[in-house]
Amino acid sequence: MLQRPVRIALVLALLRLFSAPTSAQDGGSNPGPTGGEQAAREALASLDKGWTPYDNKPNLGDPRWKVSMAALVRVVRAGPDAAPVLEAAAKADSPWSDSTRVFAAKALKLVRGPAAMRDALAGYDAAAMDTARVGKPAPEFALPDAGGETYRLRGFRGKKVVVLTFVVADT
Length: 171
Known about the structure:
This protein is mainly alpha-helical. 49% of the residues lie in helices and 4% in strands. It is built from 7 helices and 2 strands.
């Protein structure tokens, strides 16, 4: 009767022993990646894999913006731990593709930028991306204007026409 719990405990102890991080074995001089670093690497890898070079063909249904936005949300959620990974990826001699290097440089500015922008991106629901449909009510969202006042789409419900103008500044 006691043999089974003893076996289970032994298996768990062995699993723990063999799955211990390598940094513990060498005295901690080479710590493994943090969760944020790993998340940043995974985000860059998904961008690198999902990106296709631009061409002069019509790009209706172009998935690049979704790939880029999903990677950006993941990187921002990774927090400050993502910065060293982004710095390394942005270097000209990094093994990443040109588009991923450009993305990493821009994402690094956001990771180090204003907290309000980081918080807005970190709170972005990537599952809601690309859910707007012609003839259907628009998904709910809120955006600040240039003066910092936040407007919510629901505040305009019942209006006959709502015109949105987005000014995207790439600084």
